[in-house]
Amino acid sequence: MLRLLLVGEQRMFVEALSQYLCTEPDLWVADSADRADAELVERISRARPEVMVIDLAVLGDRVHEALRRLDESCPPVRIVVLASTASPELAVEAARAGTAAWLPKERGVTELVGIIRDVARGNAWYPPEVLGTVLRALRQDIRLADTRNDDPLAALSQREREVLAAMAEGKRGWQIAAELFISVQTVRKHTRGILTKLNVHSQLEAVMLARSAGSLPEPSGATVRALPRKTV
After folding, report:
1. Can you give the pTM of this predicted structure?
2. Does 139 reside within a domain?
3. Is residue 152 part of a domain?
4. What domain count does the chain have?
5. Which of 72, 102, 131 lies at the terminal end of a domain, its last residue?
6. How many other CB atoms are there within 10 angstroms of residue 31's CB atom?
7. Where in this protein does the record say 4-aspartylphosphate is found (predicted)?
8. Number of neighbours of residue 177 by Cβ within 10 angstroms
């Protein structure tokens, strides 16, 4: 019998899903939670599930970091993410973190049951609409790893290098956005990309890694242009 652990955003959803899965003769929900609380790793240790089904909504903005920590803390557990969005970028973050399956919620619980069984056998599953993007990203990661040599920043794009250089100067997100003429949301996206590609957990770690390797880029030098004065 497969031991499961469910983590969802809403208690009613978790309970309904738990009741349905328990009707399957080979599935047993050992534990469930309605949020990714600080004791989640301990709950996994107690429940000893083979598969964990987790709602993407409870992971917040740091999808890759949260899933990677779970994968590293509980390596025997296979993770299935239930996603309410078809975002290929988030699916790539999940795959990089070691997630076994990415299932859009609209696929239905019947398909979820089949995927749980498949994942427990050691297989992986991503929907066709994001699979191509995921595979291309993972192949690119392999190529970058082969050509990285001694430069830990080789995986970063030019814009990500500029954001990292500004972070090293202690600039905040809004300051970086103004300097590079991009939005604060774009700065956050580049920051997540930096942390993911450098395999670190914080901006401080990213800066320290770049400095220790002597490869911290110079800032772009862009400055906020002053508005012309009005003439009377």
Report:
1. 0.64
2. no
3. yes
4. 2
5. 131
6. 18
7. 55
8. 19
* CATH number where 203 lies: 1.10.10.10
Q: What is the 3-state secondary structure (H, E, C) of 1-59?
A: CEEEEEECCCHHHHHHHHHHHCCCCCEEEEEEECCCCCCHHHHHHHHCCCEEEEEHHHH
Q: Which two tokens stand for residue 13?
A: 């959803």
- Using 50, 70 and 90 to split pLDDT, how confident is the model at 222? very low
Q: Is 152:198 a contact under the CB 8 Å cutoff?
A: yes
What is the per-residue pLDDT across 160-198, written as a single tens digit (0 to 9) for each?
989 998 988 889 999 999 999 999 989 988 998 888 888
